[in-house]
Amino acid sequence: MNMRNKNNGYYKELFQNAGFRPCKAPKNFPSGGDCFEVLPEIGSGYYWYYEVPEQYNIKIHDFSFKEDTVLKMDVPECLSITWYESISGEELNPYRNLKCKVIKSFLGGNEPFHALIHRNIPIRSIGIEYQPDFFHQILKDSFGSAYENPETAFKCIDETADFPEMKKLLWDIWKYKGSASATVLFYDAKAREALSLIFEHHRKLNIKAKTVLSSTDVELLNSLGLYINDHYADKISIESLARIACMGTTKLKSAFKAYYGMTIAEYLQKVRIDHAEHLLAYTNLPVSQVAKAVGYVSSGHFAKLFSEAKGLSPLNYRKAFQK
């Protein structure tokens, strides 16, 4: 089947076949749209969906599974942008951790989405998915001769926490409580505004000076990443990393950000939090000991960082995962 032709109503049918049943939307969901409830034997929560055929759909996920669940599904040809408030698991092809507190872009119509979702941790997200003819036409109308292939603009986002305008727009949709007569106009305006934000975000990134990395720099940065992965619990200084990478501290900071898409401090924090997630899920170590095991002296500071990264406090994450 042509993946472009699968868009209309595709997700509603998919979720109904996967153990969701139609229901009335709870009060904390926006006006309009269709809502589905997870069957109690599978998990708990809701999936909300609003669609304009041949143009776009808006999806809200707010549910969890009782057991670790592997998802593998074809995704229609589309471009999507999503804010993840909470999620825990791994993408399996290619392998990488699923992150929360980020804006994530996705290009559908290629490889199936394949992921492991951890049990009892809520998937809480809101996103807009665009069909090809619609986003091409909107961008051409909005930007004329400045219009470029939108796939490039979506790819440049990948996963970022630095897109507050998009986060606000998506939360505005979730909180919308307008009348039925105004619903169509509101969602249409927000869908078009989000496309413009994506394109402007891409243009601003292109304006910034790009750091050119040599093959030697890339090799050294790869080795540095492996070093941090092995020594994340140690006290690591920028000076020691600069010596290992054979770079000055200024060059190291810019080169690392260019290669990994985050600062050294952000990378180290990510590695530590990912290891802490495993310790909380599979051991009974007190939170204070988990904090020390991954390199944090203060358990309070660790708990704050973990909550910001995973959407749950360390104790609540453990309770949910070991339930």
UniProtKB/TrEMBL annotation:
Record keyword Protein transport present: no
PROSITE patterns: HTH_ARAC_FAMILY_2
GO MF: DNA-binding transcription factor activity; sequence-specific DNA binding
Cited InterPro entries: Homeodomain-like_sf, HTH_AraC, PchR_regulatory_protein, Tscrpt_reg_AraC-type_HTH
Domain called HTH araC/xylS-type: residue spans: 222-320
Record's keyword terms, sorted: DNA-binding, Transcription, Transcription regulation
Pfam annotation, one family: HTH_18
Name this polypeptide is given: Transcriptional regulator, AraC family
Lineage: Bacteria, Bacillati, Bacillota, Clostridia, Lachnospirales
